[in-house]
Structure formats: structure tokens, C-alpha cells
Amino acid sequence: MEKKPLVVVNGLVRKDAIAYLKEHVDVRQWTEKTVMPRETLKEWLVDADGLWCVRPLDVDGDLVKNAPNLKVIAQAAVGYDNVKIDELTAAGIPYGNTPGVLNETVAELAFTLIATASRRILENANFVKEGRWAQRPSNIKGFDLSRRTLGIIGMGAIGVSISRRARAFGMTVVYHNRNQRIDDKIHKTTYMELDDLLATSDVVCVMAPLTDETYHMCDEAFFKKMKNTALFVNVGRGPIVDTDALISALKTGEIDYAALDVTDPEPLPADHPLLDVENCLIVPHIGSYTDRTRYDMSILTADNIIAGVHKKPLKTCVNEEVNYKKPEMDVESALEELKKAGVDLADFD
Ligand SMILES: NC(=O)c1ccc[n+]([C@@H]2O[C@H](COP(=O)([O-])OP(=O)(O)OC[C@H]3O[C@@H](n4cnc5c(N)ncnc54)[C@H](O)[C@@H]3O)[C@@H](O)[C@H]2O)c1
Ligand SMILES: O=C(O)[C@H](O)CO
């Protein structure tokens, strides 16, 4: 009987997705609660055909250099800032991520942060819980979203989903990207240079990937260009923000409030100074964390791996240049397939 391909999983993933994977391949999974040591993973990869990557893990040429059979790496995430894509491409290894399936879920979280922060829901709810309903200070009344301007930095698939929600709340949506989109008329959105966006926006929402270019994009100068009354939201990646500059901007009133789904570092240690900042709402990187969406992301990752270990095209591949191609079907085989499917070829004469 033909040996099943071997897939290494370097951490904990959904049990239902592992069960699905095991229907197609052999699986060797790190099930400790600790992060799998890199050198141990490299040993496991010597015999592996595929890797299901679980963060934190730096995926690069060094990780795969002694993995002669490795045909695919995939991760249940759309962001891949932990992956040296060019080094995997050089090694001929396609990398699968999970774009699309999480757009609405992440956009819902981002807009929930915007709406919660704009009306100071957390603070007001805590006053009620603490029996201080009547003693609420006047400075936590928040502001209306309608007739305000949302500035999205990184107007991609998720940014567009966020803009739809903002428009439904009566907001004007402007954005900054590497390039202006061609569908602004459809989404009723306006491209702006970054400085203009910062000067114009009542809410600034970061939805960009972490790259060399976006690293610490949100620094002291960035926050100084924002309105003092503005709300800053980050759902992209933590290191896009210089955390010390954000803390200073919040404490000095350079900006009014911040709502973060991502931070630098992650997880935030219990004694981190950002946790002492009153006008900052933080949730623990939950953008895609609904059961259905995590299921969809996990199954898509499993499908990418199952395809890759059999040298079939990944459904969602970042480095398409090394993705496996569908076999060219010759005419004879195509006709044979049609006959098998019961198609009467005479109909085509
Ligand atoms: N918080 C979460 O749970 C969560 C969930 C999903 C995605 N993300 C992050 O969001 C990112 C975007 O996801 P997506 O599916 O919308 O990706 P996408 O590729 O569809 O969109 C990314 C957008 O960012 C823009 N961009 C890139 N570099 C930029 C720069 N220097 N300045 C301005 N814009 C820039 C691109 O032009 C593009 O429009 C991911 O890479 C990931 O890091 C976070
Ligand atoms: O990039 C993503 O998909 C999210 O941040 C989850 O990791």
C-alpha cells in the first residue's frame, strides 16, 4: 500500500481540522502547551512532505534547508509577516494563506472596536457596574460616527468590508494605500495621501500588512498629524505602531483614544505600560476568532496542505510562481473524460 505523505503540525490547531487532515495524510503534531523548539521542528521536517505552520514561527530558508521532501507550507492566517516568502520560493516551496474567508468577521471586529470606542461603551458600562451611574464624568460621552470621516490605512479586502459598515453608519470613508484603487466609485471611497488622511480623519483605522515599509509607520510624527479629538484603531499588526509613541500620544492628549486588536508585543505582559493607559481599549487579537471563521480558515489550510503534498495546486497560494499547476489535459483525455461522464459527443458535431 502506498505510504501516505507526512505532515508536521508545530502546535495546537482545531481538532476537527486535524481529523479532516488525517483522512488524507499522516500527521505528526506537537501537542505540548509550550512553543515547539525550532531545532526539534527542523528534525521533524527532515522526513516531512508538508508543514502546517502555527505561530510563533519564523518560516525561512534556514527552517527548510534540511527538508528534502517538503512540498508545501500553510498557515491559518491571511497575514504572513512571519514568512520569508522569497526564501520559500527559492526553495520551490509554495506557501498557502487564508485570504477572503475571514474578511467579514475581521471587518465586524474592527467596526465593533470603532463603535465601542466612539461611545466609550467600556467605561460607561463599568460606571454602571460600579454603582456610579449618577457620578459619570462628563468627558466620557464619546462622539457620533455619522457625519464623521473614517480613514483606512491599508484598504484591501478587509478594508473594503470595513468601509461598507462605515458607509452604513453615515461615515465618509477615505483611505491610503500603496496605490489608488480602481473601484472607488463602487465603494464610495476616496484615496488620500497619508498626511491628508491623518489631518482629515475622526477615526484612523490601520488594516495594512506588516512589511518593512509599514513597520513603525505609526510613530510620534504620525500621531502629531492626527486630530487631537481622533480615535486610533489598529487591526493590522502590532509592530506597525511604535508602542511608546502611542502611549505618549494618548497620555499627552495628542490623540483622544485608541482601540487595538493587535499590539507589540503579543501577548501583552501583565505589567506592560500600555495597560495603564485609561483611554485605550485592547482586545487580544480576536479579529478572526469566531468558530465558523476559524473553522473555514483551518479547513482551507488543510486543503492547501493536502493539495501541496500531492503536488496539486494550492487553493490560495502566496507565491504562485512555485504553486503546482493543473496537469494540461490533452484532447484525447478530455474526450475520454466527457464520454465517461456520459456526454454524447455526436451532439458537438
Ligand atoms: N487582527 C486580525 O485578526 C487580522 C485578521 C486578518 C488580517 N489581519 C491583518 O490585516 C492585513 C490585511 O489583510 P487583507 O486580507 O485586507 O489584505 P489585502 O492584501 O487584501 O490588503 C492589504 C492592503 O494594504 C495595503 N498596503 C500594503 N502596504 C501598504 C503601505 N505601506 N501603506 C498603505 N497601504 C499598504 C495594500 O495596498 C492592500 O490594499 C493582513 O496582512 C494581516 O496582517 C489582521
Ligand atoms: O492574519 C490573520 O489572518 C490574523 O491575524 C490571524 O492570524
Could you explain how this protein is built, in words?
This protein is α/β, with parallel strands linked by helices and 349 residues long. 34% of the residues lie in helices and 13% in strands. The chain has 13 helices and twelve strands. Strands 8-7-6-9-10-11-12 form a seven-stranded parallel beta sheet, sandwiched between helices. Strands 2-1-3-4-5 form a five-stranded parallel beta sheet, with helices on both faces. Helix 7 (157-168) links the parallel strand 6 (149-153) and strand 7. Helix 1 (15-22) packs parallel to helix 12 (291-309). The radius of gyration is 24 Å and the shape is globular. The mean pLDDT is 96. Nicotinamide-adenine-dinucleotide is lined by residues 78-79, 99, 102, 106, 153-159, 176-178, 207-211, 213-214, 235-237, 261-262, 285, 287-288. Residues 12-319 form the D-isomer specific 2-hydroxyacid dehydrogenase catalytic domain. Pfam families: 2-Hacid_dh, 2-Hacid_dh_C.
Helicity range of the residues?
25-40%
| Helix and strand pattern | EHEHEHEHEHHEHEHEHEHEHEEHH
Total beta-strand segments: 12
Would you identify the regions where 5 or more consecutive residues have pLDDT less than 50?
none
Mean pLDDT, to the nearest integer, reads: 96
Helix tally equals 13
Largest sheet: 7 strands, parallel
**Which ligands are bound?**
nicotinamide-adenine-dinucleotide, (2R)-2,3-dihydroxypropanoic acid
Q: Report the principal-axis shape.
A: globular
Distance between the termini: 44 Å
Strand arrangement within the widest β-sheet reads 8-7-6-9-10-11-12
Radius of gyration of CA atoms, rounded to a whole number: 24 Å
Structural class: alpha/beta
Question: Could you tell me the strand content as a percent range?
Answer: 5-15%
Family: Belongs to the D-isomer specific 2-hydroxyacid dehydrogenase family.
Organism: Veillonella nakazawae
Keywords: NAD, Oxidoreductase
Domain D-isomer specific 2-hydroxyacid dehydrogenase catalytic: 12-319
